[in-house]
Amino acid sequence: MALIRWEPFREMELLRRQMDQLFSEMSVAEPSKSDIAPVARTAWVPAVEIHDHGSELVLRAEIPGVDSKDLDVQVTQDAVSITGEHHYKHNEKSQGNVRSEFRYGKFQRIIPLPSKVQNQQVKADLKDGILTLSLPKLEPEKNKVFKVNFDNSATTTTAIESSN
């Protein structure tokens, strides 16, 4: 039986290479606007928070630097879709190397809602990079109970409202 010498630094180097490979697969390398080096970019989606205020849901999304003309917000009864684009503004007057870690390009986020909303009555506001949507909730349908009356000539039904 041969003895194999344990080399902890070799194992650490292998782990580092595997982690580098994992992160490179998760990001897409883009050429930088400068001469320094390519900057790794990951897919960006806006952060959101949803608050339940009883009769309505309030959804807030962080989308700094995006104008309202570059946003497309679509609301169904069950979800909100936010699509947009953050444009790169190149400054012709700058001299030398420049570094930018801002994220540019298109993004999309679909947020499922915890309850159904009236998507025709949504109110939106975009201020200081925060998109705020007021989403009125749908009234839950009440179960309708029908009472069947027997006549000699025909059967008739009458609707009765129920709170169930």
Describe this structure in words.
- By secondary structure, this protein is mostly beta strands.
- The chain has two domains: 8-39, no CATH class; 43-88 and 103-164, Immunoglobulin-like (Sandwich), CATH 2.60.40.790.
- Helices cover 12% and strands 40% of the residues.
- It has one helix and eleven strands; from the N terminus they run H-E-E-E-E-E-E-E-E-E-E-E.
- It has one helix spanning 8-26; strands spanning 28-30, 39-41, 48-52, 56-62, 71-75, 79-86, 105-112, 123-127, 130-136, 144-150, 155-161.
- The strands form four sheets. A four-stranded antiparallel beta sheet has the order 3-4-9-8, with no helix packed on it. Strands 5-6-7 form a three-stranded antiparallel beta sheet, with no helix packed on it.
- A hairpin with a 4-residue loop joins strand 10 (144-150) and strand 11.
- The longest helix is centred in the first third of the chain and has 19 residues, at 8-26.
- The protein starts with 7 loop residues before the first helix and ends with a strand.
CATH architecture of the largest domain: Sandwich
Q: Which of globular, elongated, flat, extended, rod-shaped describes the shape?
A: flat
- Rounded to an integer, what's the Rg over CA atoms? 28 Å
State the low-pLDDT regions, or none: 29-41
The CATH topology of the largest domain corresponds to: Immunoglobulin-like
What is the makeup of the main sheet? 4 strands, antiparallel
Order of helices and strands: HEEEEEEEEEEE
The count of helical stretches stands at: 1
Q: Structural class, judged by helices and strands?
A: mainly beta
Please report the distance between the alpha carbons of the first and last residues. Answer: 77 Å
Work out the strand percent: 35-45%
Strand order of the largest sheet: 3-4-9-8
User: Percent range for helical residues?
Assistant: 10-25%
Average pLDDT works out at 79
- Kindly provide the name of the CATH class of the largest domain: Mainly Beta
Structurally, how many domains make up the residues? 2
| Count of β-strands | 11
